[in-house]
């Protein structure tokens, strides 16, 4: 049976209690809450190729538990709605068991918590989807947390040239720590960035990963890959009215365009393995964490994000 009514409560990413019928988790388990889920029963979950769970894929509008359509939070008798299935800006929350990944209890929760979203997304976009061959050249569009994680993934996969593209040159120095070897700021060039990259790479890059959310960058990321074998992967979430336009000959000339959600990782099945990559020191998550604030100062974290400062800010739950 699908686990629609199964719930659990966790605090500090530690399970506090489980609902009736939950067998995979027990109080005390260390977990990562994820904004998208894995029911393990639908055609997507059963497919080795998809992580787009029919039941629990991201839904920003639902705001209630799937089982009974009700919220578990309230204030003065009025409901407070859930946020993307996790509602983690609180000491305790209630989540569907399918959105919770059980991880190694030895893993430091104040570090590996960043693997719940953008870092795994960028990493997976490179290692699971773009799959750059060893010695290849990879272009990363957008050097925010997701793009830096994509660069890290390209480095882990063995790419030898990783070209970071961003309109904000202040990102470049930091990006060297994540494997970027060269940089292009489209503002520094009068010609389209696709042409700049083609000149730098003898015809085009082998792989590109777009992590901006800007549709023009998405088109550039596709058109800058080498004909014959180039693969572009879109990660950024575009404006709802955006349209992607390119000449169909770009496809006929054997360029491939892909998109990915959460780096094609299945949250419950794959995320524990990403944590193990960290435990084996194959993936360094500390360098993504530039700030940390107590829960009482959570708005400082939003200010940092709005100003584009730092990479990721940890919100510490303190009593
Ligand atoms: N597909 C998924 O599952 C998934 C998951 C998480 C985040 N995302 C999306 O990934 C994108 C990146 O997230 P982030 O947290 O790293 O964002 P961010 O805002 O921290 O970084 C984006 C970077 O892109 C740069 N940029 C913007 N427009 C550009 C352009 N035209 N050319 C070159 N660089 C440009 C910005 O200067 C910035 O440095 C967002 O759109 C986010 O919504 C997707």
From TrEMBL:
This is Alcohol dehydrogenase 1. Signal peptide: none annotated. Its cofactor is Zn(2+). GO terms for cellular component: cytosol. It is an enzyme of class 1 (oxidoreductase). It comes from the Eukaryota. Residues 145-277 form the Alcohol dehydrogenase-like C-terminal domain. Residues 14-103 form the Alcohol dehydrogenase-like N-terminal domain. It catalyses: a primary alcohol + NAD(+) = an aldehyde + NADH + H(+); a secondary alcohol + NAD(+) = a ketone + NADH + H(+). GO terms for molecular function: alcohol dehydrogenase (NAD+) activity; S-(hydroxymethyl)glutathione dehydrogenase [NAD(P)+] activity; zinc ion binding. Its main location: cytoplasm. One of its GO terms (biological process) is formaldehyde catabolic process. Belongs to the zinc-containing alcohol dehydrogenase family. SUPFAM superfamilies: GroES-like (SSF50129), NAD(P)-binding Rossmann-fold domains (SSF51735). Keywords: Cytoplasm, Metal-binding, NAD, Oxidoreductase, Zinc. It comes from Triticum turgidum subsp. durum (Durum wheat).
